[in-house]
Amino acid sequence: MSFLNDPRWGEALSHLPDYLGNHVRVSLAALALGLIVSLPLAILTRNRPAPRAILLALASIVQTVPGLALLALFYPLLLLAASVTLKWFGVSFSAFGFLPAMLALALYSMLPVLRNGITGLNGIDPALIEAAKGVGMTERQSLVMVELPLALPVMMAGIRTAAVWVIGTATLSTPIGQTSLGNYIFAGLQTQNWVFVLFGCFASALLALAVDQLLGLIESGLRNRSRLRAGLGAIGIAALVAATLVPTMGRSSSGYVVGAKTFAEQYVLSALLRDRLQAAGLSATARSGLGSSVIFEALKAGDIDLYVDYSGTLWANQLHRTDIKPRAELVADLKMALAKDDITLLGELGFENAYALVLPKKRADALGIRTIADLAAHASTMSIAGDYEFFSRPEWAALQKAYGLQFSAQRQMQPDFMYAAVASGEVDVIAGYTSDGLIAKYELVALDDPKQAIPPYDAILLLAPKRTGDERLKAALSPLLGKIDIATMREANLRASGNDANSSPDVVAKWLWGKVGGR
Amino acid sequence: MPSKPAISYRNVTKSFGALRAVDDVSLDIADGEFLAIVGGSGSGKTTLLRVANRLIEADGGTITVEGEDVQNIDPVALRRRIGYVFQSGGLFPHLSVADNIGITPKLLGAPATEIAARVDELIELVQLDRAAHRDRLPEALSGGQRQRVGVARALAAKPRIVLMDEPFGALDPLTRDALGDDYRSLHRRLGLTTVMITHDMTEAILLADRIAVMRGGKLLAQGTPSELSTSSDAYVLELLRTPRRQVERLNALLPQSGAA
Ligand SMILES: Nc1ncnc2c1ncn2[C@@H]1O[C@H](COP(=O)(O)OP(=O)(O)OP(=O)(O)O)[C@@H](O)[C@H]1O
Ligand SMILES: [Mg+2]
């Protein structure tokens, strides 16, 4: 019974109006846009084989792009578009969140609508189109009174498929800043909160089912010419939209937005920052689960106001530097470079979250491995696992070059599973994070890096350009600077990785403040 | 001087690619006349009918309807003014019997009450059962009932000219006979001009005032059955022999007093 009594169900439920509302809005807007574009295209090309083939080919290509990649692609694309409109027309728009998500999802919805629309219209018996002409219909009347009604069942099947796809894929719009039911899933996966993962999956499945059934009701109403059924279906959809608009209408959007990337430490830190701002009387919300390439651009564009990044990450990815400097020097250089973009590097939190090569302590002792240089001699018989980005990062190239590392196999893994995998011997070495609490939990050891191939990764607090002169904000945050040491952060991360009610980011953030607040 | 013909073809030609589906046809259909067009499959009967209401555009020659060149009439208006019964029925499967029948008046903008009254009148006219059939979908009708609906639809906007493409094909002989007789009396009662395509020479002789014979796109002969029987064309004579042979066989096989 404890599973059902878990207080995290309650917490999940408390987010539902926000997550579901945003999910419904972005899905239905995308579906509506997809229909507005696709249906006329299907009608226009029904008697034109060449453009029809091109259109279907394009839509099919879009469909083969994985949903997550399509969503991610729209962010830089819109960013570019926004900078162009700013230059030419002096107006800019947010390339973050709703817009890229809606456009990508709309594109995603087009194939089933187009394909079924065209199939439905072309499948009509030519004798009936002839008859429509014969009784005196114009082309337009023939389309509206005969062809569309006859193609309706096939067209509606396409629309229903599109609706289910869009609602399912919308869960992937969380990393580009669109709140959705995916927030449950991303956060749940990162913090091992299976209650959230389940809740997110069920909620989006139920939503998809409900919309599908309502569309089915409209369809059967139109087909059987039952105003009642069509009306009920339409009212159902309208009610869904209205219900999701109401709770968010009154909410002000003028507060500070704290960004967080997609891993547990970031969820905890963003909750901590949000709490600090609220304690100082500032309204603040956390926007969690943002992709690591999206989040910096979002800060630069002012879509989020502050977040925690790591010095080495920006050094390599934003400044494109491959040389390595001591911790303090690197942060100082970074601060100057970021200032050119009007981004404020407020300061370090005190701990480092660097990549480190990690293996079980017992094994390291048995083999006499203390440093990465020692490991190099054994690497050819060992396998290594890293997160999804590690092997394409400059640090990995630098490590391989400095130590001549050659592993027998390399695998990509969800970060939270890596530690258990290396502890159980499923892989020999992992590229873990120095601040991860699981290092202590599984009795692992992080190897020294005598050649300093891995740059320092100080956790640093960044403020958006529009917050440059915001002294209230800075005052609210300054009590955190330099206060979080590596041991405290490891413990916080360990707590967050637990699978119980006390492991939610909010609870851990309060614990963390309790530890560092008085320092 | 006789009144001007309801439909007049002058040297009308229609080709599909190299194929001359209608080849230099000249034919007058008098006001109030019932003309049957007969001929083999692919001889151009349907094409000849369709160029009259511009479902197909003729390539050459002139067609006039009630004295007006059809090229000078808006094709949509032309079709609303001529009733057309399709070879395959052509009823709209998603519309009820009543909506199928009332479609042309609706396109012409008639008020709903007027359409409803007209539909009831037509259901009666083609001898369907108002209570049982009015609101059914075509799929729930028998073949003969569907063809009655097709005829009713063609008559709904009170056309003076009706074109029928094998309207009673694919029916059992009894129904076919009854429907033919019913239509013939409607034709007379409403003062219609009717052009009917049929494969059945007996039907043509029994229903029509005059018969036009098509072959390979050409109009081979036209005239009353007795005029045709004096034709010098072997094909025409062969066509006329068929019903006569049938009658002789029937007379030989059935006792003269019969069931009647
Ligand atoms: N749209 C078209 N495109 C090409 N050829 C056509 C077209 N319509 C008719 N034809 C051809 O024109 C010729 C005459 O066709 P039509 O339909 O007028 O014949 P029909 O006498 O009505 O035959 P049936 O008794 O079988 O209905 C046929 O050879 C037919 O294949
Ligand atoms: Mg024909």
Automatic annotation (TrEMBL), chain A:
Location of the protein in the cell: Cell membrane
Domain named ABC transmembrane type-1: residues: 20-215
Keywords assigned by UniProt, alphabetized: Membrane, Transmembrane, Transmembrane helix, Transport
Main localization (coarse): membrane
Gene3D superfamilies noted in UniProt: MetI-like, Osmoprotection protein (prox), domain 2, Periplasmic binding protein-like II
Molecular-function GO term, any one: transmembrane transporter activity
GO biological process, alphabetically ordered: glycine betaine transport
Cross-referenced InterPro entries: ABC_Gly_betaine_transp_sub-bd (IPR007210), ABC_transp_perm/SBD (IPR051204), MetI-like (IPR000515), MetI-like_sf (IPR035906)
Keyword Transmembrane helix among UniProt keywords: yes
Sequence intervals crossing the membrane: 26-44, 56-82, 88-108, 194-218, 230-250
Keyword Transmembrane helix: yes
Membrane protein topology class: Multi-pass membrane protein
GO cellular component entries: ATP-binding cassette (ABC) transporter complex
Family of this protein: Belongs to the binding-protein-dependent transport system permease family.
The protein's name in its UniProt record: ABC transporter permease subunit
